[in-house]
Amino acid sequence: MSIFQSLIRKEVLHLLRDFRTITVVLVMPVVLLLLFGFAISTEVNNIKVVAVVEQHTDETKQIIDRFRNNSYFTFEGIVPYHEVESILRKGRADAAIVFRTEDGKLSHQIIVDASNTNLALTSTTYLESVICSATGIPVVTNTLYNPQLKSAYNFVPGIMGMIFILICAMMTSVSIVSEKETGTMNLLLVSPVRPWTIIFGKLVPYFLLSCIILILVLVLSYTVLGLPFSFSVINVIWVTILYVILALALGLLISTIASTQVSALLVSGVMFMIPVVLLSGMIFPVENMPLALQWLSCIIPARWYISAMRVLMVQQLPIGYVLTEILVLSGMTLAVLVLAIKKFNAKK
Amino acid sequence: MKNAIDIQGLTKRYGKLVALDHVSLSISEGSLFGLIGPDGAGKTTLYQILTTLLSPDEGSATVMGLDVVKDYRKLRTEIGYMPEKFSLYPDLTVDENLHFFASLFGVNVKDNFDLIAPIFDQLQKFPNRRAGALSGGMKQKLALGCALIHRPKVLLLDEPTTGVDAVSRSEFWGMLATLREKGITILVSTSYMDEAERCERIALINKGRILDVDTPGRLIEGLDKNLYNASSKDMYPLLETLRTLPDVKDCYTFGATLHVVTNDDFNPDDAICKLRQEGLEDARIWPAKGNIEDLFIKLAKDDG
């Protein structure tokens, strides 16, 4: 057996023997995907609506019928104006619509319980679109790429961005640092094996593990979560592999800085987990951030990866549309790799 | 005889701390050489330089004629290193560990098993046990086996017997003697003074400096003349009083008695008289046979 093969074999044995880690690594992506895909959805269903009608006309009747038939709303009935406030307070309704007729012209007011801002914003938009379409000024909204506004579409790229950085960066750094901690790294270094071989012996198994996770995530996204399948999946795989290499290089860099497993975990947690969740655009759109944070988000690899994934997975555009992202990611990979190898080779 | 290890003016600093201070040392081929010193004396640093893990700030060192800085790659195949801490993979089995280290050096376990067979006598009974589940003595044997599997010419053992029971320790030293007979040069460090006496030659090291190098026997010889045992029912007053006597250079607890280091003018009978005057009626003083520990205390004291 060659040196490289036995290094990889050893690493695989470590992984297989560490039952807890391997379970977490394989179960976490699945749970996250399903959780974000189903449980945590930003779609709003069953908005409870009441109406106040000053003067019943055909028009108001028509609008109210629309609310009755719309699956996003539950129509709770017509109430007098002075009761609206107490109904909203008691939570019997989420929104109230007030119809006034002045000089034969219908005007309306939407009163909405904004204790949950997201819910209030979304329901206002829904209500307006229903009223507008009924009042005859047709606004044709055409939501491209995600016609049903499924939140899974939004979250799959984000979760992929998080999972790969967590697994690759965290696990490689912890596994290298643990060898430093137990002293086995010294034994590897005093053997005639070149440092390069040792590094690759560490990176390749985690790269293979990431590929397995990638397959798992893609299968889940295209089957259970119902993302539209097309040949752009090849591009998704290429870009993800680039991202995985970047994450592995980051893990290597951390392992040269951290001296204990705990600090490696903390560094990768603080350096990756928090920025990825908050600044990558996974949950909060980058465009809405203050300018300083937008600049900061530029150095977060996940931001570029996630935006590329949105283009490739959801919009299914050809790879030419994500050239910027690919260039940035490649540049980052190169820089981190050079830095990591320089630090790794530095003699104490 | 050729020297297996040659160290010239080796210096290593960590910031202000001088871990090794111009250390020079020669170890002849095929010898069992002991490096004796307290914790923090610089032993581990010296090992790390010899194993090419650290580069020295000043001075040079060669192992089997190979420079630790220039020829480090070739040198690595010639040495077997066993670090102070148990450093094998606890989640791999005995066999897996051995095969892994063999493959690192590109050798076959079968070809070289004869060398480690005496060490692996007991371990062979459970090749599939995880290394982490072995007893201290067994772990140490496995580590020694892994360090030897590529037939190194020089074996560097950094405190190999720390945390191992007395029986295993004695067994381990027996193995080292066997390996030496096969022509392997062994440099072993220890803070157990009784082990020092099993080496052919020893170097005493403290605060990064070599204090003395000789055979254990000859190093002790110089001590015997002015070394005495002292005992009494009340040991502490005895210690205090002895230290006030003009001819006593040093006095320290040694097992159940006190060891008294004196100058040439010391007369035990006079001393007993003085002690009796001080109320220590049962005080006794008789000549002592020195060992490495006394030597070390003396040298460390002289060194300041």
Can you walk me through this structure?
The complex is a heterodimer of chains A (348) and B (304). Chain A folds into 2 domains: 234 residues, no CATH class; 88 residues, D-Maltodextrin-Binding Protein, domain 2. In chain A, strands 2-1-3-4 form a 4-stranded mixed β-sheet, with helices on one face. The two termini of chain A are 32 Å apart. Chain A is α/β, with parallel strands linked by helices and 348 residues long. In chain A, helix 6 packs antiparallel against helix 8 and helix 8 crosses helix 9. Chain A is elongated and about 95 Å long. Chain A contains 13 helices and 4 strands. In chain A, 34% of the residues are buried. Chain B is α/β, with parallel strands linked by helices and 304 residues long. Chain B has 2 domains: 212 residues, 3-Layer(aba) Sandwich (Rossmann fold); 83 residues, 2-Layer Sandwich (Alpha-Beta Plaits). Chain B is 36% helix and 28% strand. Chain B contains 11 helices and 14 strands. A 6-stranded mixed β-sheet of chain B has the order 6-7-8-3-9-10, with helices on both faces. In chain B, strand 1 and strand 2 form a beta hairpin. The interface between A and B is medium-sized, with 22 and 29 residues.
Tell me briefly what this model is.
Chain A has two domains: 234 residues, no CATH class; 88 residues, D-Maltodextrin-Binding Protein, domain 2, CATH 3.40.190. In chain A, 66% of the residues lie in helices and 8% in strands. Chain A contains 13 helices and four strands.
Q: Name the poorly predicted regions of chain B.
A: none
Radius of gyration of CA atoms of chain A, rounded to a whole number = 27 Å
Kindly give the count of domains of chain A: 2
SSE ordering of chain A:
HHEHEHEEHHHHHHHHH
Low-confidence stretches of chain A: none
Describe the main β-sheet of chain B briefly. Answer: 6 strands, mixed
How many strands appear in the DSSP assignment of chain B?
14
Overall radius of gyration of chain B: 23 Å
Structural class of chain A: alpha/beta
